[in-house]
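[Automated response] Your request has been received and processed.

Submitted sequence:
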Amino acid sequence: MAKRTGHTYSSSEPTFLQSIGGTSKSSPYYDEEAARVSQKIDDELKREWARRKDAMRRQVKVMLLGQAESGKSTLQKQFQLYYAHQTLDHGRPLWRPVVYFNIIKAVRMILDELDYELSTLDSDQSIEGQAVAHALAPLGDVSGEISRLRSKLVPLTSMEDSLASELSNGVSVTGGRSGVYVRAGWQALGTPLSPNRSKAAPATGGPPPAVAHVTNLASRTLMSVQSEIDDLWKHPAVRILLDNRRIRLDESAPFFLDNIVRIAQPDYLPTTADLLNVRLQTLGVSEHSFDIELCGTRYNWLMYDVGGARGQRHAWVPYFDDATAIIFLAPISAFDQYLEEDGRTNRLDDSLQLFTAICSNKLLKNSHLVLLLNKTDLLKKKLESGIKVRKYITSYGDRPNTFSDVSEYFRAHFIQVHRRNDIGRRVLYAHFSSMLDIRATQAIIVNVGEAIIRSHIARTGLA
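Generated structure:
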């Protein structure tokens, strides 16, 4: 070794370096036991790396994308029901306060809408307004009846904000919008994902004491006023206003109000149907893990459920680069609705724009692409009630207002978006779906899951 000026060398330095990097047993510094331990560590590191590499190859990362209220969380629960029903069963009690909140919110919305409609009835000279006034006239003193019901329901409706606050755990959104907005781990079963995507560690125990207290209070209050809730829901005035679309509720509200007697029982435990119908808006990104077996091989399915509101979509990007597949949900029943964040944007148009962005995103060009045209059950109900598509989608023109024609028209638009904008030239797997139909949805889950895994196998070389 050539010496440099200013550097002091030990005479033993070359021998020391050789003893570390070489295998000379003749060296006085050679330690056979240390060499054996070192080799054992090296071998274990190689085996661990091989195990990790194999585990990563068997890891399937799926993103659920779509606007808010498109059915992403419901689809995630359907996957959980099919592949990991034990975890769904374990979490049933923690959904009780969310079900209660859905009912309280529905009751408050009905009362607010009734107050507004009854107070403006005389001044509404529109054809629709006059028709509603004519239908309500035979009912007599509707305002007095509703006022009496409202006074009895005050203890319940006054709990909405406190229940929402406890469930949201201090999380709020801009714009003053009310509701329950939660992040990953809200059920006290885990914590939000960190930026490095480490899996949330499960926590033990039930909900925090404050949530448990307000849940028990809501349960007792609900039981004491269940008759008044039922009377309100079945009141002829409410029926007339609902039929004339003067009252608009969350999509799941009728289901819970129809089941108020069952839900108001003190020993109430949410059913699977309750879990699928419940309305809860997630903020950020939540990770869910399932083991899926195909042809004797087990794959770890990581599913990412994302917040779909416009202000939440920036959080999707960090998960794009290594996504195995994208399942995009488009609620085609929302043709007559507008974004909560932007009352000028039709929700179906927003879905088309969002799907365009997904198809043209370079980070996703190698990801398997599945399109679920969702909420077909609600679309059928709207069309059967006489709602005209052309009133909201002018390009629909004079086409028949039937489910087959309308659904095919919407499907054609999404397929055209894919054909024009998909930079990966991928096959698009499109399905009509209703997330509340367990049997039909799980048939789709099996087909979609197998297709995604087979695509993953072909891409990674697994056999």
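Summary generated for your ticket: The two ends are 52 Å apart (CA to CA). Confidence is low (pLDDT under 50) at residues 3-22, 188-205.
If you did not submit this request, please reply to this message.
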